[in-house]
């Protein structure tokens, strides 16, 4: 199955159903299931921002199975709509790239350590 590695806390926020958009500099034509892998590295600033949510942030684990529903080219209108939808998670984004619209299918409690990779990769 296809997988993508994300830094924490972003992987867990998706797994908890709190983050429905994944921002990328590249467009994806694929629509369908993909695994969310929490990598070894963390976004320290974001970890501090979401500390009050009192969530677990595993590293090197598959944490969710989601569906990529759409890939949207961002502009000012799209940025504002995403921020309005969930200001806690998205803060003051202003990106000129792409966002993947995600739908959470299943949070995964996986204790197996999995090494991630850059880009889209395959996990058996």
Keywords:
single chain, 124 residues, alpha+beta, Archaeosine Trna-guanine Transglycosylase, Chain: A, domain 4, six-stranded mixed beta sheet
CATH H level, superfamily name: Hypothetical protein
* SS content category: alpha+beta
The amount of beta strand, in percent, is 35-45%
Mind telling me the C-alpha Rg? 14 Å
* CATH uppermost class: Mainly Beta
Biggest sheet strand line-up: 2-5-4-3-1-6
Q: State the CATH architecture.
A: Roll
The CATH topology is Archaeosine Trna-guanine Transglycosylase, Chain: A, domain 4
Approximate helicity band: 10-25%
Extended strand count: 6
- Mean of residue pLDDT values: 92
Contiguous helical run count: 4
Shape designation: globular
The tally of domains stands at 1
Structure report:
By secondary structure, this protein is an alpha+beta fold. The chain has one domain: Archaeosine Trna-guanine Transglycosylase, Chain: A, domain 4. 21% of the residues lie in helices and 39% in strands. It is built from four helices and six strands, in the order βαββαβααββ. The chain has helices at 10-15, 44-49, 76-85, 87-90, and strands at residues 2-8, 21-24, 32-42, 61-73, 98-107, 120-122. Strands 2-5-4-3-1-6 form a six-stranded mixed sheet. The protein is globular. It starts with a strand and ends with a strand. The mean pLDDT is 92.
């Amino acid at each position: 199955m296809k997988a993508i590695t994300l830094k924490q806390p972003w992987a867990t926020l998706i797994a908890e159903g709190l983050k429905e958009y994944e921002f990328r500099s590249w467009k994806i034509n694929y629509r369908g299931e993909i695994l969310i892998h929490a990598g070894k590295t963390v976004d320290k600033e974001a970890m501090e921002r979401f500390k009050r949510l009192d969530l677990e942030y595993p590293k090197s684990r598959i944490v969710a199975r989601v569906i990529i529903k759409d890939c949207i080219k961002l502009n000012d209108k799209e940025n504002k709509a995403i921020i309005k939808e969930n200001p806690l998670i998205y803060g003051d984004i202003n990106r000129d790239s792409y966002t993947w619209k995600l739908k959470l299918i299943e949070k995964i409690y996986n204790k197996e350590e999995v090494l991630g990779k850059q880009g889209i990769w395959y996990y058996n």
